[in-house]
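>> received
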Amino acid sequence: MSQDRSNDLPYDRELIRSGSASSGRRRGAPQAPRRAQATPPRRAAGRRRRSRWRTVRLVLLLIVVAIAIGALLVGFRAAAFNGAVSSAPFPSSALFGKLGGSERVNILLIGYGGGDHAGAYLADSIQVLSIDPATDTTTTVPIPRDLWIEGVGAFPENGKVNEVFAAGHATGDIDGGAELLAAVVSDVTGLPIEHWLSIDFEGFRDMIDAVGGVTIDNPVAFAWTTGPVQHQGGNWSSGSFEAGELHMDGETALAYTRARYTSVVAESTDFARSVRQARVLSALRSKLGSGGIGSILPGLGLMDAMEGRVRTDLSVIDLALLSSHLSSDRRVEVTDSTILTATTNTIGQYILIPVDWTGPGAYGGLRAFIAADLGRPVDAP
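>> returned
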């Protein structure tokens, strides 16, 4: 009789038949601990890429939020500035379409002393910025302060052109003075002037300081003084400007642009002052940058400096557009050596009239001279 030796087998036959056990492992024998399976390199790299992408997205989101908040704050500041200095609503733009058109855009720039002293609103600087959108060039047309105005309907009082701003101011504040001056200058030059910007001396000084000063190239060295008595006596104690590159703060730039009594005869004219003013404006333009984010901080600084010192009928958006045209590509020389001649009026005042003057309202020669000069091609800047 044979013995059942199934219990002596080193494996469980039933488990093997069912596929639930390996014939190479003894029933009940302890299993060796499993080794942790390594993460495939490709899957780990994918997780790292997803982590980096989440970080990038978070950074981009924070940047977008910061820009949005910054734009909102700048917008609020711009709106407040617009309300303080402009008669135009915010947001609006009178220049955006015109600067993309084909017709010239003429803007009148007016500088005056301001304050409470006598003659505070006599225009010290009168210039027309004539912008040609077709060529993207700007021509400055300086108007001498001593240009005689007679026979012009908008100003029946007669007088020097710098008196027009004061007469308009007396009846309508800065806006009235600027609008009257724009109408008169438009009549005598033949240039349609629809917009204007005025600034007093302190505003000009503060604008220069707001951008950290300006650097100009001064071609002629000269000393200066403050009045005719000192000038005749050769007293140049007020200051001097060397030839060459000069860095100026606001106070120095103001003195440079206003100096009338100088040690150099050619620098003592209104024409020379106009050229110096153009140099400083061009240097100011270079400090504003070419637009975009880099121009925001200088622009905000200018807003602080200009508030309460500037008055215009352009919106803050238009002022930003105009800033790129402060550096002129050329000038029309309206001087006593081109189209004007010096004389005196009936009370002995020094005045300038067109060379072909035949009486009140005879500005046809001046208009033709300006039109012809503007019609010439502009040399490459």
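>> The chain has two domains: 62-210+288-381, 212-277.
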